[in-house]
Specification:
Blueprint lengths: L1 H7 L2 H22 L5 H20 L3 H10 L12 H12 L6 H12 L4 H7 L4 H17 L12 H20 L10 H17 L4 H14 L25 H14 L4 H12 L6 H14 L3 H15 L1 H11 L8 H13 L3 H14 L3 H18 L4
Length: about 400
């Protein structure tokens, strides 16, 4: 899709052509067998569908010629070695400063991040319809303003860095804890976010926040094989089998985190993640790091995570006080707010309130594994309360 957008300058036409190519693949591949180069086959077929569309509409003659030159009719399947470069160019196009910052991130997530419109909407805690309108306006702005499809010169890179990092962070988050997939982990999204962060690091080797984000993702990703048990059930951090953690990723992540510093939010989050994989977590230091993160990124999500750290350092009552201050705000319909509150209430022995909070979290959770985890917590709570409970 990135290759077609480069030539067409039209997101919708490229997306339609690629979708048609996948539909044709679903029909033909089971019958004819898998092509030697599936990615190139999709690109070549999508190119043909785009040409057909342009011919029918009798427009974009210049674009049509460019497409025919790019992939002459009847040519063998083209190599797909150019796709990573095209993808990176499209990242920078979507993150052009002419677009509003939230539109930059949303469009990149939808176009390149492997996220559906509902998943992007959840990442921003807004409605699906609102997000769809935002995406349409962003695509139109790129087309009408003739925003260039290229990696910008070095002096323009910092202006787009914040949005690029946020995009990679949200792609990784969706992979690390999928909103509605049948599995907890979508490893292809995690791997792609890490790959692109490495690529970005080669372009901007002096940017500490790029190192910080890569460190953060590596440290989280290092625990991927221990996050679910053999039955697909979620395993919380303190119950995970540390022997299943990936030591090479931990070592690289800790090294990068040390060099990232605490001047930016990703460097601070990397330092927090490094504490979580240490032999003994220094919870007082984690609380201090969350206080620093709140200065850099004063968001309700930071406050929620900080409340968990506070509960470990100063007891569940201290954490619950922070969580209750977040109720009624942007996180009111976020399942992890209620799941966190339920856990703190359980630790305080307030079982009836904890059960109600677990039930609310279960209502809001979209991932089946998370719902199963909350159901187990409810059963455990019911057993501890006894028959009269």
């Amino acid at each position: 899709m990135a290759t077609l957008i480069r030539v067409l300058g039209d997101f919708d036409l490229a997306e339609d052509a690629v979708q048609e190519a996948f539909a044709i693949a679903v029909e033909r591949w089971p019958r004819d067998g898998l092509p030697d180069n599936p990615g190139a086959w999709i690109t070549h077929t999508a190119r043909n569908r785009a040409i057909d569309r342009l011919r029918r509409e009798r427009r974009y003659e210049e674009k049509l010629r460019e497409l025919e030159l790019m992939m002459p009719a009847g040519a063998a399947d083209p190599p797909d070695t150019s796709l990573p470069d095209d993808r990176l160019r499209l990242f920078f196009t979507c993150c052009h400063p002419a677009l509003a910052p939230e539109a930059q991130v949303a469009l990149t997530l939808r176009t390149l991040g492997g996220l559906s419109t509902p998943e992007v909407a959840r990442a921003f805690l807004i409605g699906e319809r609102t997000m769809q309108q935002r995406l349409v306006r962003a695509k139109r702005k790129i087309r009408d303003a003739n925003i260039p499809y290229r990696v910008p010169p070095d002096h323009e890179l910092p202006d787009r860095l914040h949005s690029l990092l946020k995009v990679l962070y949200l792609i990784f988050n969706e992979g690390y804890l999928a909103a509605e997939a049948d599995t907890v982990l979508r490893s292809e999204l995690c791997d792609e976010a890490i790959r692109l962060a490495r690529l970005l690091g080669t372009l901007m080797p002096d940017e500490r926040e790029v190192r910080g984000l890569l460190a953060l993702m590596l440290l989280h990703n290092s625990r991927r094989d221990a996050r679910v048990d053999a039955d697909g059930h979620i395993v919380v951090l303190h119950e995970q089998d540390r022997s299943a953690w990936h030591a090479d990723e931990i070592a690289e992540g800790v090294r990068l985190a040390t060099g990232a510093g605490d001047d930016g939010p990703y460097g601070v989050q990397a330092a927090i993640a490094a504490e979580h994989v240490a032999a003994v977590t220094d919870w007082k230091r984690v609380v201090m790091l969350y206080a620093r993160l709140a200065e850099l990124d004063p968001s309700p999500m930071v406050a929620l995570n900080g409340a968990v750290a506070m509960s470990m350092a100063a007891g569940p009552g201290a954490g619950l006080e922070i969580v209750d201050q977040l109720r009624g705000g942007r996180l009111e319909d976020y399942h992890l707010l209620h799941a966190t509150r339920a856990d703190l209430l359980r630790r305080l022995g307030r079982d009836d309130e904890a059960a109600a909070a677990y039930r609310r979290a279960h209502e809001l959770a979209g991932n089946p594994a998370e719902r199963a985890f909350l159901e187990r917590r409810l059963r455990e709570l019911s057993r501890s309360r006894g028959p009269s409970g």
